[in-house]
């Protein structure tokens, strides 16, 4: 990194080291995670980096990773720890033969960091640009940079949502977003409203939420969407929350959700582990 513009290429991405930032360019191709392809490239200011690690990887590889500061990246804030390791945009996987070179760049990066690992007061990494759109199970979600729109599908929307009609939410009316990965049970994207009181616990009953499902709301579409909305919200008000404490559910509702979960388990759509974990989560809400 002694020369601005040095490039370190790994699997699925190349990092270009500049005087005040790291420019990450993601490859396009069948083997590249779809989230990386959707991001294209990202510039990460050194002020947004809390640390650097270099660790052994799988099958003869090493992994160079920059650790983002809390609150610095809207994508990471929206993901809230739900991204799988292979989809971590801050990991650069290299052949073990390049470990010495990777160690050199890791040391160079560490030397340039300010040492500030306190949460950032504002986003330092740019959010994915609007407009954004994706198909959830019960709606088409779109965002033009100022307003989020949900257009319900009659084949998937609950009667509550259908009766409420299509929804539009200016970012000025939002306090944040809640993204639950489509790769887990009950995945959804929920808009957190500033003045709505308590929102329904179930996403399929909340007109401010869309639910995911098999093939709907994939990570590479719904997460950049959530990050773009979150960044727009923060630009217009106080620090946005990214999670909402769900109110306690009615026991009858819990029993119905467990029954439905059991049906998915018997059908082989939910693993034993997923069944046990989710059942415990539901029982804990009693």
UniProtKB/TrEMBL annotation:
Occurrences of domain SHOCT (ranges)? 256-283
Q: Which residues form the DUF4429 domain?
A: 15-109, 141-229
Its name, as the record gives it, is: Tat pathway signal sequence domain protein
Biological source species? Streptomyces pseudovenezuelae
